[in-house]
Amino acid sequence: MTRCNYYELLRKLASLAKIRLSDEEAESLCRDLERTAEFLRSVSDISKSLNVEPLYYVWDEWGPLRNPGEPRTINIADLPVRTKDGYVKVPWRGGRVEEA
Amino acid sequence: MKVTIGLEIHVQMSEAGSKLFCDCKANYRGFDVNTNVCPVCLGLPGALPVVSRRSVELALATALAFKCEIPKFIVFTRKHYFYPDLPKNYQISMFERAGGVPICRNGVISFLDPSTWEWKTCRIRRINIEEDPGRTVYEEGGITGSPYALVDYNRSGVPLLEIVTEPDIRTPRDARLLVEHLLLMLEYLGVANPRLEGVFRVDANISVNGGERVEVKNIGSTLDVEKALNYEILRQTKIREAGGLIERETRHWDAMRGVTRPLRHKEYEEEYLYFPDPDLPPIAITGEMLEKAMGMAAKADLRALLEELPKLNVSPEHAWSLLTTRPSLELFRKTVSLGGDPQLTARILAVDYKGELREQGKDPYDPSNWPPPETVLELVKLTISGVYTYDTIKGLVIPALASNPRARLETILPERASDIDVAVEEVLREEVKAVRDYLQGKTQALNYLVGRVIRKIGRKAVDPRVIREALEKRIKSAMGAGG
Amino acid sequence: MRRLKQAWELARDFREGVEDPVEHAYKVLEAISRWEGVVNAYISLESPDLVVEEAERVARGIRAGERVGKLAGLLVSVKDNICTSFLPTTAGSRMLDPYIPPFNATVVERLLGEDAIIIGKTNLDEFAMGSTTELSAFDPTRNPWDPERVPGGSSGGSAASLAYGGSDLSLGSDTGGSARLPAAYTATVGLKPTYGLVSRYGLIPYGNSLEQISPMARSVRDVALLLDVIGGWDPLDATSLRVDKPRTFTASKADPRRVTVCVVKELAEGADEVIERAYWRILKRLESEGVELREEELPIASKALPAYYTIAFAEASSNLARYDGVFYPMKGGGSSWEEDVELARMKGFGREVKKRILMGVYALSEGYRDEYYVAATKIRRVLRDEVLRITRNCIIASQASPILPPRLGERLDDPLKLYAMDVYTVIANLAGVPALVQPIEFHNGLPVGIQWMGKPLGEEELVPLGLLVEELTGLAGVVVG
């Protein structure tokens, strides 16, 4: 079976997004991704002829600043976390060595 | 040898009151684990960030203090990476190449070298506002081997200033001086208390003789800034001498062992997927905000503050000592404004009182350990009047005051010896040999006699010169009288 | 097909003692027990005893002459991506099954503040990603008008609960048409508010620069009633507009002679013939009443769909990064941190969600960001500016859906088929403008809807037009059966 062109890329994206994929899932997603990427790429051609700035905030309006208020503290034990001595406990074993 | 150093300093805005995007506390120290948290700083779905006014004001004042170009509005971006102490698995900061706009561009910091009184400068590339992640603690096996990581989110969302310099610094010592000065400025701006544990960290970039740039991360004290960079220069020099090449890399400063160690090599390039945070529309920097920030920034013009003092005949050393211990500077100014002699006030505060606090193990940065300006004024006046000698002030009054800064001066001033003549008479009668020695020209004998009189008077305030005069007069008159 | 009293009329009748909230609660609960087995509109329901208790409390208060809220006695369903601390909030995903938020969404607080009775959380495509409500981890919702067909999505559960009488009012959400498409498929009314008019605090985010919590109901005035309660500035949401609460409920039906409607070519064409005919029928009808019809063009509309999806995927990948098993019920079970996170996300997310995250990462990655994400935002600016220009002087008449409600499974074999359902609705999300969908006809028992788009904060013009249309169609309050 010929591998879908996007397979390598898909593996890299899955690694960045920290989603584990089985081989079957990867194969099936790969084809979808190919179709979808093709579909999305049509934005790039037309945008080259548009001489405008990107629009990130639909109203171009200024955001508010927050005046001091009371903290809305919650009890972390209300969440489905594992804890030890009040700390949130996660598996580690080396994880990622350095903080970015 | 040519050394080029650039610094990236992260400082918590510990005095900002609240976290950057929520009302939990900015100074998280002293809280039980995971009790300074809310839906926003835990990144719970549906919770939204709203920028704190105070954080922006402080950041703006900082930007003005560093003479930056101020933008018309600031924009926050998301930086994505997965880590247990980053609840949303993205950090909100300001990345220019993806549409972010930092609070400062192209500033400059002037810092003093107090051993030469030379002012040096270093350009500031940018200052960002961003949020701190939580704190991770590892169990047995440390960061590489611990089966579990334990996370405390009290720190998550605390406001940070990221200050990035250009590589204008030339020596590790200058790097340390810069950081010290920067922290002092931030203290005066009311942004951060530099003495809080973990309130700042430094990453340094160093290149020796035009070689590859090495980044050293995890420097947590100003002394370590100098140490780490000196270590790096040494390490790189050794490699060069052995014929090796310096690679571009990131290293980790191990403060306990005093070495830098390589970080694990990454298999892929960092991809942070930056884009402007849709939850945070741009914040306008208004004329009003600028005006207020300018007022705040003026308080941190250390150079101006420093130059003001010598005009009042305060010596540079005393001026620096006052400046670096902020409560003493405030006290100095208030005392002088009440009429205190500047030179003497500076000396008493910067040298004697501060020294005494150190002796007694008290924190000179705690304003409650300093007396009120009225008390200091009295003390200064007293010293000038000669009613008490400087030695008495230094030896008796100041220690008593340091133990109890709120005390009224009368209650701690030693009793004046009202009548020294009696003591003089007694001593002259008792110390016949000394008197004879003095008459024979041994002037030290007079010092001895002065000492005896002081001892006889006990713990009362005496001016040794007055005693000396009294002795001389008495002896002379005794001689004149033929005895 | 029958008609139920409109919710606002019911609320008034409760207050005047003409109707009994408790009796009404029983009726609705009965409808739920009758229909839910087939329709599956709800993921979680409040206990019937509690619902009746609440209704009794309202009844008592009214009898005692107390002042009660605007929604007192009304049963409101809430889409399960809106946080409630008293019912699980799953976003239709295994990742959050069951997650109980430690806070209520602002809109929920506002509902409770007006004495609404929140009867349950409705089904949705997982994380609101879908157009048919077939992609929920809790099984599809079926269209009460024809259970072989979909109710639209992603707010399909909300729409379906209204369509069979299992709720009086509903809160949905709309990122690319998610409240409007279901309205069109179920003969209900859905309004996507002006971006920022309704607080997003407590809405589990998918495309946060695009979405709004949306009032849904069986009539235009009911939607207006709900909008007035939930809308208005919220200091907890920095994208919330600093405006007073909207006042649309008391609006009168529009005077047709003072209404101008723009037929935008690209938004009128391209639908099934049946739908296009229905569209023109109502427009001609309006014209005969005195409405002015004008022609307009929006050439950039052909690029709206890919631009929308690029932005939505990018934002999704970012907004869903937080689901790593730490604070959430779906744990990875890995022994190393990276493994634990990867497994949690593998198990917790459905296929469509994974796909969208991966595409989003792609669109934002260093080599492709300009070509995809930034390009899409440029198209967005042009589109927004054009839409603002057009709507300054008229209300846009647009199709709501290119097709009649499809059968289950029909749109799932090809991703682009699913995305194509949103071709008319994404415009309003990209531009930030308000958009109202209401039923205009039935074709072989299947609902056909129409979409009106206004200018920013133009809800106060959309509602009057909607009331006028409702009068002409007579479809207010319609339910199955």
Provide structural commentary:
The complex is a heterotrimer of chains A (about 100), B (about 475) and C (about 475). Chain A is built from 2 helices and 2 strands. Chain A has helices spanning about 5-15, 25-50; strands at about 85, 85-90. Chain A has a two-stranded antiparallel sheet with strand order 1-2. Chain A starts with 6 loop residues before the first helix and ends in a 9-residue tail after the last strand. The model of chain A has no long low-confidence stretch (mean pLDDT about 90). Chain B has 3 domains: about 5-285, no CATH class; about 310-410, no CATH class; about 420-480, Arc Repressor Mutant, subunit A. Chain B has 16 helices and 15 strands. In chain B, strands 5-6-9-1-10-11-12-13 form an 8-stranded mixed beta sheet. A 3-stranded antiparallel beta sheet of chain B has the order 4-3-14, with no helix packed on it. In chain B, helix 13 crosses helix 16 and helix 14 (about 430-440) runs antiparallel to helix 15. Chain B starts with a strand and ends with a helix. Chain C is of the alpha/beta class and about 475 residues long. In chain C, strands 2-4-3-5-7-6-11-12-10-8-9 form an 11-stranded mixed beta sheet, sandwiched between helices. Chain C has a two-stranded antiparallel ribbon with strand order 1-13. In chain C, strand 11 (about 435-445) and strand 12 form a beta hairpin. Chain C starts with a strand and ends with a strand. The mean pLDDT of chain C is about 95. The chains are: A mainly alpha (about 100), B alpha+beta (about 475), C alpha/beta (about 475). Strand 2 (about 85-90) of chain A pairs antiparallel with strand 8 of chain B.
